[in-house]
Amino acid sequence: MFDIDNLIIPELKEQLESFDKIETQAVFLLHILSFELYFPKYKNRIANRWFMKTGKKYSAETYTRLVNDEERVKDYAGFGCNLNDVKIFINKLCDDLKNGGKNYEKLISKRKSLAITIDEWDDDLFSDLQEPKEPARQSLSETLARYKELVDRQEERYGKQTKK
Prior knowledge:
The chain is mainly α. The protein has helices at residues 10-18, 22-33, 35-38, 43-54, 64-68, 70-77, 83-98, 104-120, 140-158. α2 runs antiparallel to α6 (70-77). The longest helix has 19 residues, at 140-158. The N and C termini lie far apart (74 Å). Mean pLDDT is 80; it is low at 115-133.
């Protein structure tokens, strides 16, 4: 199983934790996937850490697609995620890419729909927590009054209807 923490040396961890925004942290994590390009100063140490943790040589080419999806990962991170959530998401995507990428789009879409759902929430959604709730059932007189109101409105618009 892929674990991005196997690539994070202490210097990178310190930089990662210094960022205030989760979106910036997410992009930084993606850059770690292409550490030879973004962190040439540390490339040997990062590669050695990966090898020591996994027993395998790291192949950045496998994860290029994810690095190119920076905006999608950044968008996901911006929807109430914490650093651990983003790492789990990246790990799942990397696992899929390592195994051929058959579920990659499905994973991205699933997270995207979750993010959209969270984004569409409105404060009104929680307004019932502050205001007293209306009774679930109306009395018969309330129901009849509402029915009469609807009939009257109907008659105003279309005239009185007679049964044939």
